[in-house]
Amino acid sequence: MSGSKLVKVFYCCSDSAKDVQLRQKLENHLKILERQRVIISWHRGMISPGKERAAEIDRQLNTADIILVLISSDLIAADDHWEFVTKQAMQRHRSGQARVIPILLRPVFNIWKPALDNLTALPTLLEREKAVTDWGQHDKAFENIAQGIKKVAQELTDPTFHIKHYSQQTGVVVISVVQATCNFLIHIVRSTLFSVFKPSRTRRHRRASKRANQIVILIAVCSVLISLFFWQAGIYKSFLLISNPTIESTENINYSGWIWLGIVKNHPGALSPGEPLVVEQKNIAEYPSIDPLVFPSPGAIVTVKQLVDLRQEKSLISEPIHRFQGGEKLVILKVEPLKKASRNSVYIRLMAKVRCHHNCEKK
Questions:
Q1: In the 8-state DSSP scheme, what is residue 270?
Q2: What whole-number distance in Å separates Cα of residue 127 and Cα of residue 130?
Q3: Which residues of 202-229 are buried (b: 16+ CB within 10 A; e: fewer)?
Q4: pLDDT band at 130 (very low <50, low <70, confident <90, very high)
Q5: Neighbours of 280 (CB within 10 A)
Q6: HSE-CB of 210 using CA atoms within 13 angstroms
């Protein structure tokens, strides 16, 4: 996955009011990751009117990167939910296409674990799984879950994640070794100075020569260890810049791709700029996404009206790579029909290839 790709999180939750309420609290704790454009979330409650429920759930699951299975007795008791989890979700997990993370909402007998390949559930306290409702403060449990999900999202999007993690652990060891070596070096210097000004001349010169050799060796060792420490501290930035020059300036990313534009009325002849976009639609998902509400010409600068997904391909089922907020400015590169409209069709649905007006600000 590329560094600019949003990690898609799919919630698998029962319809129980208790579970839905806990899921909503978890969403609130993960909202900061959405604002930072680390993740994008989806659950069954987001199915818009007019869409076939089962097909939409399958589509969202098959494009998810992280699948959160919110474990409770209600989820396990619901045959359709549980069969869905144990078959479709785990199939994607086992094939490496997605990561399934069990979230233990309420205490339940661990008989569910084998069906999920004994995956470790969140939240954890002292490396032991502990249901959210068993925590004195639910917010502490959700904070623990959010940290775990953020770590997985970073692992999925950053190819150097494991190297960084290893360095953070070994860096402490290197610092300790460097400090111990330098302290030992100081001790030898003090001993050498003392021996120079103390006993007989012959003995003094012999000791001084021996100490001088030890100092040279230890200075060399200390220099190597210090160099190793600074090499570890700086290797990642160099590696990232070589492998992906855009990572250095994540605040300035030029996103480009396809967005949903809107609908125009079908009439004989070619589409032409200036035609009004149809606003009177029953399905809110088909509302125009830009302002002004007209068919834009290439090179036009438009304003995003509400949240709109940016996709790599001209398709509403392709995976989103970014999400534009309302008020952002975009440059229209070209506009094309979503698919060829029949002569009898009343409307033509449009997609637009766009890029940011200025460098997108990654929040």
A1: -
A2: 9
A3: eeeeebeeebeebeeebeeebeebbeeb
A4: very high
A5: 6
A6: 9
Q: Is the distance from CB of 142 to CB of 24 less than 8 angstroms?
A: no
262 φ, ψ to 5°? 155, -160
Distance CA 172, CA 118 (A): 33
- DSSP secondary structure, 84-141, as one string: HIIIIIHHHHHTTSSEEEEEE-S---GGGTGGGTTPPPB-EETTEE--GGGSSSHHHH
- C-alpha atoms less than 13 angstroms from C-alpha of 251 in its C-beta half-sphere: 0
- Angstrom distances, CA of residue 352 to CA of 269, 285, 324, 342: 20, 15, 14, 20
The helix, strand and coil proportions of the chain, stated in percent and rounded to the nearest 5, come to: 45, 20, 35
The mean predicted confidence, pLDDT, of the chain is: 79
pLDDT in tens, 333-357: 999 998 877 777 888 999 999 988 7
Q: Where do the structural domains in the chain lie, given as residue ranges?
A: 7-157, 161-249, 256-356
Q: Name the residue among 90, 51, 68, 88 with its Cα closest to residue 317.
A: 51
- Report whether pLDDT(229) > 70: no
Out of 3.40.366.10, 3.90.640.10, 3.40.50.10140, 2.40.50.140, select the CATH number for domain 7-157. 3.40.50.10140
How is residue 342 annotated by DSSP? P
